[in-house]
Task: inverse folding
């Protein structure tokens, strides 16, 4: 399980298989990896061109199995919950 903010979305052309990819970062926590960067997790939804509610800046809690893809931890078809901002 991970919590973070969507930093980036990748939109693929219609000529390739439908896949929706987002990068989740825990940069809000102030933690960094050994290279001085934020912890990042690639989220991939297979068979989808878009996922409702998932866009840059959205805070999420995701759950699923993590594997490494091109040196970046990757979670395929994660279960997710959009976390709202609490009003004062």
Result:
């Amino acid at each position: 399980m991970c919590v973070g903010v969507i930093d980036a979305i990748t939109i693929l052309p219609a000529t390739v298989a439908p896949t929706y990819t987002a990068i989740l970062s825990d940069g809000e926590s102030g933690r960094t990896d050994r290279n001085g960067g934020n912890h990042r997790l690639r989220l991939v939804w297979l068979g989808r061109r878009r996922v409702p509610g998932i866009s840059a800046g959205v805070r999420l809690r995701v759950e699923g199995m993590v594997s490494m893809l091109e040196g970046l931890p990757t979670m395929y078809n994660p279960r997710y919950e959009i976390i709202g901002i609490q009003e004062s």
User: Anything to note?
Assistant: The mean pLDDT is 87. The chain has no helices and seven strands. The CA atoms of residues 61 and 83 lie 7 Å apart. The domain at 2-82 is CATH 2.40.50.140 (OB fold (Dihydrolipoamide Acetyltransferase, E2P)).
